[in-house]
Amino acid sequence: MSLNLFLIFILASAAAAATGVIFRPGAWYDGLRKPGFTPPKWAFPVAWSAIYLLSALAATRVALLPGAGLALALWAAQIALNTLWTPVFFGARQIALGMVVITTLLVTVASMTVTFWQLDGLAGLMLLPYLGWLCVAAALNWRIWRDNPGAVGR
Q1: Contacts within 8 Å (CB) and 24+ apart, 88-92
Q2: For the domain that residue 109 is a member of, what is the CATH number?
Q3: How many domains, in total, are found in the chain?
Q4: Shortest CA distance to 59 belongs to which of 11, 93, 107, 100?
C-alpha cells in the first residue's frame, strides 16, 4: 500500500469533511421536525471520520490495481458529491436539492462499492459502512423534506 496515495485520498476526504465545519447545522436544523431514527449529534462526526478513513484506505488498496480507472473515477465522483451535499442542505437550506445530491451520491457509492469489490474484496467490504450510513442519511433527508414544508431558506 502506498502512503503517498493514502495521504492524497485522506486529504480529499478532509476537504469534504471541512464543509461540515463551514456549514454547521445550527438553529435552523435544530428547529426542523426530524424522525425518531435520527442519530444523536455525536454520531455524525464519529461515523463520518470512520467512513472517510475506510474510504481512503479502500481507494488506496485499489488505486494501483489493473483496471482501477472506473473505481477511481467513482471515488472522485463520490467525494465531489459528498462535498456538495453539506453546503446545499445546511448552507443554502435547499432540502429538495439536497435529496437529489444525496440520492446521486448513494447510487455512486453503491456503484463504487461493487466496482471496488470486483477489484479487491476487502476494499469493497470497507465501503459497506459508508453505504449503510448513506441509506440512513438519505432517509433522514427525505423525511425532513417531507415533514417540513416551507423550511427552505428560513
Answers
A1: 89/141, 90/23, 90/24, 90/25, 90/26, 90/28, 90/29, 91/22, 91/23, 92/153
A2: 1.20.1260.100
A3: 1
A4: 11
Task: Kindly report the backbone phi and psi dihedral angles of residue 120, in degrees, each rounded to the nearest multiple of 5, phi listed first.
Answer: -160, 110
Query: Angle at Cα 25 formed by Cα 85 and Cα 130, nearest 5°?
Result: 45
Instruction: Extract the C-alpha cell encoding 86.
Output: 453539506
Query: Measured between alpha carbons, how far is 46 from 38 in angstroms, rounded to an integer?
Result: 15
Span 101-129, pLDDT tens digits: 999 999 999 999 999 999 999 999 999 99
Give residue-wise pLDDT tens across range 14-72. Answer: 999 999 888 888 899 999 999 999 999 999 999 999 999 999 999 999 999 999 999 99
Does residue 120 form part of some domain?
yes
| Pick from 85, 79, 75: nearest CA to 113 | 75
Residue 123 CB-density burial (10 A; 0-12 exposed, 13-18 middle, 19+ buried): buried
Can you say how many angstroms the Cα of residue 96 is from the centroid of all Cα atoms in its chain? 17
